[in-house]
């Protein structure tokens, strides 16, 4: 099995069955090294749903993807075997059961010693992914979290688990190490002043949009945290971006990052041991000309390059 | 308190706080006779979500509504006191708890001896409404069900309750009387041949689009069932309409009814004892120029005229 | 000067400067016989504006127009000299002055003994057109009025003139003869029961959608009124059509006519002396895939064939 | 290999890799009986392009498809082995080479003695399909052609081959038998009176929209032509439908058929020897809420049932 | 009466009657301190209309608003009593009368010694607001004006008052003090070189986009003018933003500010005596995914924090 | 003949026949100095088509254009005679013949010693324009190329000529001088590492987005290349912009330039001998609220000011 994207110069990019980056669609236990899969679920969202359609849409726009990273001067698809391994089973109308299925699916991916990227889904789907990783690696992960929101919020409508609470649970359940956790793109308004209590108490580093822009970008990039050999996970909520770059998302917040700033942040991150990542909260029904999906694809592409060859 | 729509000739229709038909927004125990409320919930939907935004959108387009029914030659708002009583509480991410809140809310409306119309929400929300009505009236209801789908389907993804199974549960729980039940607008394809077993077994009358169109419309209207003094409920799934008339819905099916046919059906129905009704499955994110919402509003307006003055 | 549409088989339909039907754009006093012009004004509209963009949009979609009428078996552009004579001057923010400019412009067209079609604009623009025609012809016109609404409504917000009152003024000012007037496509709801007083009092014939559909279409067509040598004008409000056919309009009403029914009505009308006509209330910002504009273009095309060669 | 659609009750319809009807994606020489493939090409279109995206979009919406035909009371997927065999290779910017590749691809499908349905693509793509069929079957085909346009038009811009000329070439090249050919949905306007010369000369039966509607639908259906054992092909141009049903197409024409009428026509056709068919001219960039794609899917589903078990 | 936004953690943000920030809707003479109201009028606009729908749309998206300002570390809604006081009466088709009604309405708000924010409406609506303020405070106001355009333009189409002339009239009528006036976001092209004569002659400070970006943002912010105890008004035309951030506006101009820059400007302004402000020129029919409305809401939120507690 | 834009203060901007900048539409041999024309062709595009509609759309939005350049403090339309000279003939379905017609049309423009700007069309249309210029001027041109892509790519689908290869052909055919060529806005990803071989080999200067942003903008502008008296051409592919600024294009790439940066680059360029330019790859069917078309218009306006008075 050759793990190469279908060439756009041979097969027009609008043709063919849609898989992530036009890569082969293989079984979960095939001999790929990095698997990309979808988690089509938006049952944890508080405002605009639609993220259930994101895996299909990102597959579609990934037809536009190319393989050679101009800054890194390398073709990742020639370095590691990457494949589309389909969609994780979900129950569209039940979060608890969806959580079980996600944890099981990711557990199986990990049981084959694979690394992975997923396309959500709303942000509530990240929690069971982290649970599976925690089990696999036996200790809390280092965690890079792009978002407009802290996602450390309390229960809503009497429900503990929703897309604005996953990060709190991840810390409270010991899935991630708050000392090795950074949140990027955060901005207000918040629901209340106590929204920041959690991150302060746990010592989580919060990088706001102001932090990114108060100095020239190249200077800011030097202040990014460094990571050690701790297994590290990246969760990329598309709403870290400004609504002009990512209109198609569940809870957009003006004053966000640009796709360019995010590209530069990804390129500046040094992560010795990335084990997985996700792109979440793309809502195609609210997107325009697929620019949000394209921004998500771009993040996926950048993240891919953070995986090390073994 | 005067229960009159705000006049469009005094206050432009695009202005003012949006309530159903520009009626007063009053408390659940005020002295209105027919209450209109929203049930913003789409957690039971199998394909396109978005119905959570329907109550807000129907309120908005109802600014275009007028009060005098040209065929009936009467202004319903001068006959009965109609009011907007707000939205039923829901839990966007939990169906079981939402069911409880709906049943409780409708129960409270009924405890004040009110009749009502609601704007869903996906079709799963009709079940708890029927449960509350069953309790109130102490016997199964007569039931008029507009839909492209039978909604008598089995569990999906291991879940008993979803927007395609509410009618089955309504029958099985004894909430409605299958002998006094009619389904209008039904058409294929179906998932399987056994999809019809349920309606056959229970003797539910199914009126397909073919049935409506095989004879001139006026002739068809004469074949509509008659209703007796049994408390009667109407559930109007917007997808009974053709996608050209109602693109903004969760699971559109080509070959459906037109808004005109539906108007004529509503005007031909004789219902001595209507106790409530709903319009469900309008999904504004998938609508175009609000025509689906307008079609839903029109059904709401027609249904209103089926309530008797006491 | 040759009055022929630019051929789509020579010049692709998406190319070239946009004029109505790709006809020559000529001066108001050129030697054409039927002039088509725009009246870009929507200052009289009560709900959705945007008709100001209709002349430009109808010009654009008229690139798709073809010249040979399949039912009539004739090419109108070979029978009469038709031309685009540009847009009537308007004052976007002042109705009274716009009325003056419209009346003056139409007066000038008529002073050259031309017949014409115009593309509005909201329906308030028809009144000054009728005033100019009344002056020219010295007597009230016969009047065919396609619309969902009667447009005989009273003042709104203290204003006499608005898009829902033009027909009342036309009658009251003696511009049209109510005995030779027919309104087609009318349907409810109305604001009040007295909305019908005006048409009853003046004996205006109202053809509702029910009237059109209560018998087979071919039978209905035989009941259309006949017209005599009285100068006759047609005003075609696109909202006579159902929202599925014409979503892009100011005040859509479900349950309307189809484009097919309207084609058949136009083909059945016998008008010995048509002097002008208009298509109004197309609002491109609310249109979808230009289908409303295309429906308006189609009406324009049908109307054109009602002009007699002299 | 089991040729069964993925169940929507097990795997949510918005999940999984998108294939036609969620069927298996297999090689061209696998043991399926009816293959469905895409022809993503819009290089022959005269106005709105975009049909290149139709195969991907129809695959996506076919997730909504169900298998049991309510009128026919059968599940076609249980009768014949149907599969997605991917997309035919095309050259997006060269029609001549695309023609070669289409003819070769279809030839290969036929060499394995398969029957097939394809999703275009603009209507120019039907010609090479017919060429391959003519070669295979050694004689002209019977031909059912749904369209607003005759597609028998002369060269445009000096080019013989374009999406409005394929039917003329099919007749002139002897690919189809004009005596066994019917065109359904035709309506004007035409470019010129001589547009009808070709069909008259060749005795092709033209069924206009008027023909369909001049009598009750059930009566019309009895007048449909019958077909003999001649290998028969169906080409379904989505623009036979009214723009309200199919806004997303290259050259929409008001006054078209409804999806319901088309369903009934398909169900009334008796075709002893259907060898293939296509759905063409769906342009997703101009579609609204995917209703055009859904209408195309519906036609695909109906056509499928016209294949006989051997 | 408690002036607190409805909590999104109790009542889902997509539910409930839509008021600004989910605040109580109260009478004009209630005991609130800052009233927010709509001015739904777009009769003064020169290109794209639609701002009449802005108050309703901003109310809708304000459901997404939260209350705690992350930079200021305060919850404004806990400091001052803020309420929705409905919409100012307007006459959609008459500017002069609308001016009277606006001036009267604002006069009444001021008669109760309230401060306020309004959501227009096109920019022509700011003039009568300033007239009412001038009367109340007895002297010209200090004036902060965000805009792409100077709005000091001469009459158009013979009309003195339109959305591009309000600032000129405000100066000429002595409503604002040009020496205490600043225009932010200005950029070309202009209609003519003399467009700048007015601001030069009156010594109005004009801050162009170049001015904002020629130095690092933090440095620019230090150059903002300071304000004294003069009653100060802010008029925020959404088209000061770049079309990527605010596509839904009447006359967009490329090369504009970003929402982030505007946030920083608002946070840097020191205004001892803010008496009112507005957000104008949001045109929902031209918006995409509500990002323009969200940007307007964000400006509203920032402006709110500039009101002092007394 | 007066070459002045129609005034927006006399004739509302939404009215009148649409020409570029509301300039007169004149014959190719009239006495204008700079001609603007359309090249409606998208037959060379690899992904999203639609650029065939760009000339019509840019004409439409150019109604919003104004004439006085605020930074340059001059009204170009008063300095040089600018006119709309219509659209170049194209063959929508044949690239080779379209190339011939473009070269012939541009040749004729040049034969009258005119300078020009064109609105494409996809980027494949620039090649025949350069061929005509090369013939006219007898030597390779200096060439400024804005783009996300290098467009020096090899054949695709066996075809030499497509929208991603024009720059390679321009160099290989000696139409432009690679030493006097600069590409601005370039960014990855690329198809392969060898994509850069061509520009390296020919010594073409490539300015990436990183290059533009690694220093303050004013510093970057000083590093722009200078041009000598060599006839110079500018080709502006709208996809050099970020998708947030230009969603409506054929192959969008995140991380692009902003309209503001491009304005500043245009204003900083010193070009003694500009002979022509184009704006290409605007695809209106994929645009949102016309912001891409507006960005293209803005580039057209800036380019116009680079023409010298003779």
From TrEMBL, chains A, B, C, D, E, F:
InterPro entries hit by this protein: Agmatinase-rel, Ureohydrolase, Ureohydrolase_dom_sf, Ureohydrolase_Mn_BS
Q: Where does Mn(2+) bind?
A: 123, 147, 149, 151, 237, 239
Keywords, A to Z?
Answer: Hydrolase, Manganese, Metal-binding
Which cofactors are required for activity?
Mn(2+)
A Pfam match:
Arginase
An MF annotation (GO) of this entry: metal ion binding
Q: How is the cofactor bound?
A: Binds 2 manganese ions per subunit.
Choose any GO biological process term that the UniProt entry carries and state it. putrescine biosynthetic process from arginine, via agmatine
What is the similarity comment for this entry? Belongs to the arginase family. Agmatinase subfamily.
Task: Return the PANTHER family for the record.
Answer: ARGINASE/AGMATINASE, GUANIDINO ACID HYDROLASE, MITOCHONDRIAL
Q: What is this protein called?
A: Agmatinase
Q: Which organism is it from?
A: Bdellovibrio bacteriovorus
């Amino acid at each position: 099995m050759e793990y190469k994207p279908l060439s756009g110069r041979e097969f027009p990019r609008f043709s063919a069955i849609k898989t992530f980056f036009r890569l082969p669609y293989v079984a979960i236990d095939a001999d790929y090294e990095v698997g990309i899969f979808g988690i089509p679920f938006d049952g944890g969202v508080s405002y605009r749903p639609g993220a259930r359609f994101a895996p299909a849409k990102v597959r579609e726009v990934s037809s536009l993807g190319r393989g050679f990273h101009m800054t890194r001067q390398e073709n990742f698809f020639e370095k590691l075997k990457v494949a589309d391994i389909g969609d994780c089973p979900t129950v569209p109308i039940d979060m608890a059961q969806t959580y079980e299925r996600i944890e099981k699916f990711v557990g199986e991916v990990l049981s084959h010693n694979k690394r992975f990227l997923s396309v959500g889904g709303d942000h509530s789907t990240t929690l069971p992914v982290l649970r599976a990783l925690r089990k696999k690696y036996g200790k809390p992960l280092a965690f890079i979290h792009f978002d407009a929101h802290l996602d450390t919020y309390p229960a809503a409508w009497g429900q503990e688990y929703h897309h604005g609470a996953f990060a709190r649970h991840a810390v409270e359940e010991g899935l991630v190490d708050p000392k090795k956790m950074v949140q990027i793109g955060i901005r207000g308004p918040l629901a209340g002043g106590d929204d920041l209590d959690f991150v302060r108490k746990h010592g989580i580093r919060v990088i706001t949009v102001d932090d990114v822009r108060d100095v020239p970008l190249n200077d800011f990039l030097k202040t990014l945290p460094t990571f050690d050999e701790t297994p590290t996970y990246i969760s990329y909520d598309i709403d870290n971006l400004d609504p002009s770059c990512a209109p198609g998302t569940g809870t957009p917040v003006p004053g966000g990052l640009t796709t360019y700033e995010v590209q530069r942040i990804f390129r500046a991150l040094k992560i010795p041991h990335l084990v997985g990542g996700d792109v979440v909260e793309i809502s195609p029904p609210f997107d325009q000309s697929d620019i949000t999906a394209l921004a998500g694809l771009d993040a996926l592409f950048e993240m891919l390059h953070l995986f090390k060859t073994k």
